[in-house]
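mind reviewing these tokens:
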Amino acid sequence: MRIGVLDVGSNSAHLKIVELRPGRPPRPVRSVKHPTLLADAITPDGRIGAPAVERLVEAVGATARAAEDEHLDELIAFATSTVRDAANREPILERVAAETGIRLGHLSGRDDARLTFLAARAWYGCSAGRMLLMDIGGGTTELAYGDGEEPALALSLPLGAGRLTRAYLPGDPPSPRDVRLLRRLVYERLAEVGGRIRGLPPARRVVATSKTFKQLARLTGAPGGAAGPYARRVLSLDLLRERIPELAAYDDRRRARLPGVAKSRVHQLVAGAILAEALMTTLGLEDAEVCPWALREGIAVRRTRTSPALTVTDELGGLIQHSFGRRRPPPAYARERAGRNATVAAGRSR
């Protein structure tokens, strides 16, 4: 069975197409990504601004066309916390459905943590033993802990790199005072969770997922993407601490020139680094291994282990679509663009 997993987040709409084979890991077929750039478009009242909504609709529409071209058996489409928690979520979801044919659902924060943990477990195998997972997103941070496929503890915290940047680091570069205040706030908010996790038996393997952790590992000496997914990448707390003052002193343009830093995420890199350092310190960790699999892969793994006929009571049941394969009229923005292009072409032919 060929499925697509569409994850619409604060930076991009990312469609991952995989082949599901009974008893075997999901096989990646194709990955399609289009920018949404929502992180800096949240208004003070918690709404996503109109230009960002346009980008969101365009990005989902582009991935919808890619999904149609692949003749998928099913599509699992969801929005992450930036859209899920927006004050104008419902009008956005209605417009996306009307113009692209894609119904975006959403996962709870706890299910996000559980499925990401499942992805890491599938990547490292049962021999990894007791595992602690950390995932820093744009709006939330997920933590999960356990020794099986299902974590004994799964948490989602309203601490994301984009959310913290918007609220506490307005400058470019941020002021030293703002950096100090954010660091203090993050430590305060992690204190209770840190004490709770430190009271559990130590994890045999500490795993970090997400683009934030990948970028930080690269900045502290881990291999780049050219080394392939199987290269071991580790984020050291000591090396991370050494880089934070430098990252905080740079402006976005200078940070964007650093190895492994995505231009779309450069503005939230300082907050992500502060949050990662606070997490590792609070949890008593010296380092963490970066896992190439995360939520999308966790959903694919879960799908290989569930009945073909899911109900809406299943964690993925309400997200699965089968009727996206027919061609639809292009959305308004595409019709307008096509009209402009046709006018230009006609003028050139005269």
Observations:
- The radius of gyration is 21 Å.
- The domain at 109-296 is CATH 3.30.420.150 (Nucleotidyltransferase; domain 5).
